[in-house]
Design brief:
The protein has 119 residues and is α+β, with helices and mostly antiparallel strands. The chain has one domain. It is built from five helices and four strands. Strands 1-2 form a two-stranded antiparallel ribbon. Strands 3-4 form a two-stranded antiparallel ribbon. α2 crosses α4.
């Protein structure tokens, strides 16, 4: 009818995707971090800037023949310190088991496809 306003039904906005949670690792052996002995490290999600800060290094190594993905020790160690907000000395002080646990927990942040593009 003339003069009637058309009412459009607004669809609810789509929910924002869930933000990945911090990765919290309980350590087997406490370490000194920023002047305190800590029994756990909390790692945030990396940003593009964090990844760029490593230059050409990438935190994971992929064997394209076997599909095996492993941490790249030096870049992963640097990234661990950045993401946990602790100095490199803290990462160097981790036991081998704690270091490996942290590194493997963070590997999911670094997609293999990104490394393929560097080749």
């Amino acid at each position: 009818m003339a003069g009637e306003a058309t009412v459009l039904k607004q669809e609810p906005a789509a929910a924002a995707p869930a933000k990945p949670k911090d990765v919290v690792i309980e350590l087997d052996r406490p370490v000194m971090a920023n002047g305190d002995m800590v029994k756990k490290l909390t790692f945030r999600e990396p940003t593009g800037g964090d990844i760029m800060s490593l230059g050409d290094a990438y935190p994971i190594i992929i064997n394209w023949e076997t599909g095996r993905v492993t941490p790249n020790p030096a870049p992963m160690g640097m990234m661990m310190g950045i993401l946990a907000g602790v100095p490199p000395s803290t990462i160097r002080a981790l036991s081998a088991n704690d270091w490996a646990t942290c590194a493997h927990a963070l590997m999911g942040f670094f997609p293999p496809g990104a490394q393929a593009m560097q080749s």
